[in-house]
Amino acid sequence: MDTAEIESTLGDEERRLAALADLAILDTAPEADFDELAALAADILDMPQAALSLVDKDRQWFKARVALPFEQTHRDIAFCNHTVALREPLIVRDATADPRFSANPLVTAQDGIRFYAGAPLFHSNGQCVGSLCVLDSRPRDDFGEDKLRILEGLARLASRLMATRGERRKGEIAAKVVEATSEAVVAADRDGQIVLVNRAAEDLFGHSSQQALGKSIELLMPDRFRNGHQKKIDNAAAGGPTRLLNTLLELPIKTSDGRELPTELSLAPWGDTGSDGGFAAIFRDITRRKLLEADRQETRNFLDAILENLPAMLFVKEARTGRYVVVNKRAAEIMGYAEEDILGRTDSELFGPVGKDYEKRDAEAILSERPFVYESEHTRADGETFNIRTTRVPMDGPDHPRQFVIGIAEDMTDFRRSEAANYWLARYDGLTGLLNRGSLSSLLSDYVSEGKPFAILSIDLDRFKTVNEQFGHPAGDAALKVVGDRLEELVGRECVVSRAGSDEFVILLRGPRLNDRATTLAYNVVERMAEPIDTRGKVAHIGASVGIALYPEDGETTEKLRENVDLALYRAKKDGRGKVCLFDSQMDAAVRDRRMLEGDLRAAVANGDIKLAYQPVVASSTTDVTSFEALARWKHPTRGHVSPEVFISLAEDCGLIEELGSLLLDQACSDAVKWPEHLCVAVNLSPLQFRSGKLIQTIQSALTRSGLAPERLQLEVTERLVIEDTDETVAQLKELRAQGIHILIDDFGVGHSSLSYFQVLPFDKVKIDKSFIHEIETSRSANAIVEAVIGIGRQLSMGIVAEGVETEKQRKLLTRLGCSHLQGYYFSAAMPPAEVPAFIADMQAPPVRLASTVA
C-alpha cells in the first residue's frame, strides 16, 4: 500500500487527529502503566522489541518502547501507519520480502526491522490513533493466531488505559479551572443542596464555603423568585427536560447582606440522572455591564435603526482604553460573541494575542490623517475564519478630540473565495486538476522567452471515443482523471503536465539530455496508458500516441513548436496506436538510430533474444577451470552482433536494466546448476540495479528457482558502483556476502581506484582490467601496478583475477607474480552454454581448493 492509498484509507484524518489530541498524551513523560504493558507484550509474545505507537500528522511517537533506540520516526516510514490505515492487526513476517517495506530505511538499516506485528489502538469514539506492536530483527514464522489474540487483547487494554488517563486528567483540569476562574461557580445535588462553592462565588454572594455547603440553593435567591424557580431547579437537578440547562439567562441573586445583584446564569447537569446527579450554576456579575447599558441607552436608541440594518460590521471603541462602546449586529456575528459580551471589553480580552494586532491598527488609525484601511483574516470565537477589510477613522468626542475610533468592516470572505476559485478555474482543468490549455500557452511562451532548451510531448489518447460511446461520458471523465493521475506519477516534479484538449495532454520537460529523456518518458507514457482503467466498475482499454519536439531545434516560436509537435503526433498515430515519434527535421541519423535501437532492444528483452556466453576463469597454478563469467550477447536481425557496451548502456538509460538484469541472472543460475558443483558463475551487475531496492530479492528468487547454491554465485560490480552511493551499496553487498555469495570488483584500475576500497568494501576478489595486462610486457608502470595489486590481494587473502590474458608470456609472468586466477582468449573466448560441458571435460582436472582464494 503506497502513501496515497494509505491516506485515502484513513478517511476523515482531521477527526482521527482530533481524537489523538483529545487524549493529550503526545510528548508526555513515561508512565509506568504503559511501560509495563509494552514490556509485558514483549515478554509474553517472546519478542525483543515492543512499542506503544501513536500516529500523529507527520510522525509516529512512542509512548512506551522496549529496546527501540529512538522515540519517534517519520510517519511515512512507520509500520504502524499501515496498521492505523487498516484499522485491524497487521503482521509482516519478513519485511525484506514485502514490497511495501523492503526499501524502508527502518528495514534496510543494520539490524533493521524484519518482523512486525501490530494491533490498533482506538479512542473511545472509534477513531484509530495508533498501535501496540512487537518487532524483531529477524523473520518470524512462529507468530500464530494465539499470539495475535494476545496482542489484540493487550491493545484493547492499552486503549482503555488511555481513555481512563484522559478522563482522570479532564477531571483534574476541571477542578483547577473551577477554582481559578473569575466567575462564580455553585454546584448542588438533585435535592438542591449546595455541594460546591468556589472562591469567586464566596466573593460574589458574601457567604463562605463553610456557611453555604449543605444549605439549600434558595439561600442565594431573592425571596420573590424562590417559589417560581424552585420547581424548575429541582427538575434540572433530577435531569428532567428543562429550558434552563445549557442556556444563558439573567437572574438577580441575593448576597449575604441582603443586596440584589444582576447576574448572568448558566446551568448544566453533572453526574447521572440518579441519586448522584445534580446541576452546576455559573454566575457572572453583570452590574458593570448594566450600568454601561443604562448610560448609553439614549445613544443606542438613536443609532440602533441605522446600525442594526447595516450589512457591514460597525464598531466604536474608546481610543484611550480600547474598549468597545458600540457594535452592531453584523459585528457580533463576525466576532462570534454576543453584543453584550463585546461591550466594555478590549480586543485583547476577546481575542487574546490576535487582539494585540487589532489594537495596534487602532493606534495607527488615531495617528493617521486619513482613513486607515487594513484587510486581515479574522477567526471568530467558534473557530470560523473570515476575511475582513476594515476602515478605521478617529472620531472626536465630548471630552476631547480623537476620543473614539470608529470602524466599518466588510466581510470579504465570499469575494476572496470567489476570486480564488475564478483564478483556479482560469488556470487549471476542472476535471483533472492539471494546467489547462490557456496556462500551457502562457507557460510555453515563458519558456520560449527564457531561451533555455526544453522538450514538448503531445499525448493523444487512443480509443478514448470508444470509452465514451460504450460506457458513457461519466466513465470517460473517470478515465481522464486516471490518465491525469498516471501522467503526474510518471513525470514527478521535473516536468509540467497539462490537459490541452478533450483527450489531449501535453508535457513540458526541461534539463539535460532532452533527446534521451523525452524519448524514454514518451515510451513510459505509452506503456502506462496501455494498462486497463477501472471506470465506475467498467474496465476501459485505451492507449496513447506521443509526438515529441525540441526547442529550439524544432521551432523557435510557440506557434512553430506546437505545429511541429502536432506533426510528430500525427506521424505517431499514422504509424499505428501506441507509437512514439520525435520530430526529426533537425535530428541527425545517430539519434534516430538510437531510438530505433531502443525499440529493438525492448523487443529483444521481451522475446528473450539477449543470450549469455561463458568465458572460463582458471587457477594460475593448475590451469583448472574454477568459474565462468556470464557475458551478455545480442545478435540483432539486421545489425548483427551489438556491442554489450552499447546495449547495456541503452538499457540503463531507458529503464530496461532491471528487467534485463533479472532475466540474465535467472539464465546464468539455471545454466550453472548443471555444471560440476565446484564451478562458480560470475554475473555482472549494473549500479542501477542496486538503486532499485529489489536487487537482493531478485537474486534470492533466481537462486531459489534454479536451485543454485549461493556460494556458487559471484557478482561482479564496477568501480562506478563503488564511487556512487557508498553507504547504501556497502549495506547491500554485506547482506549478499552474508548469504554466501561472492563479490568481485571488475575492471579495477580504469576508474577512480582507491586502496581504501580494500578496507571498506566487502570484496572477495579483484579483477585487474585487461588494459594493464595487455601492456604488462612492455610497460614498467603497468607491470608495477599489477604486481602491487597482486601483493595487496595476497596480504588480504583476497583472490586476484587478471583479465585479457592472450599470450603464454603473459600467463607465465602473471603466474610468477602470484596472480591467483587468469581469464582471456589464451584459454578460451566466451562460448554458448551448450559448449561449456565439453570445454570442462577437456580442461578440468579434479578441483584444487586454495585456502587463500575464492573459486
CATH architecture of the largest domain: Alpha-Beta Barrel
Strand order of the largest sheet: 24-25-27-28-29-30-31-32
Overall pLDDT level: 85
Percent of sequence in beta strands:
15-25%
Number of structural domains: 5
The tally of helices reads: 33
Largest sheet: 8 strands, mixed, barrel
By CATH, the topology of the largest domain is: TIM Barrel
How much helicity do the residues have?
Answer: 40-55%
Low-confidence stretches: 586-591, 847-855
Descriptive report:
The chain is an alpha+beta fold and 855 residues long. The chain has 5 domains: 3-173, GAF domain (Beta-Lactamase), CATH 3.30.450; 181-285, Beta-Lactamase (2-Layer Sandwich); 290-416, Beta-Lactamase (2-Layer Sandwich); 428-587, 2-Layer Sandwich (Alpha-Beta Plaits); 608-843, EAL domain (TIM Barrel), CATH 3.20.20. It is built from 33 helices and 32 strands. The strands form 6 sheets. Strands 24-25-27-28-29-30-31-32 form an 8-stranded mixed beta barrel, surrounded by 5 helices. Strands 3-2-1-6-5-4 form a 6-stranded antiparallel sheet, sandwiched between helices. Strands 8-7-11-10-9 form a 5-stranded antiparallel sheet. Helix 18 runs antiparallel to helix 19 (473-491), helix 19 packs antiparallel against helix 20 and helix 24 packs parallel to helix 26. The chain starts with a helix and ends in a 12-residue tail after the last helix. The relative contact order is 0.04.
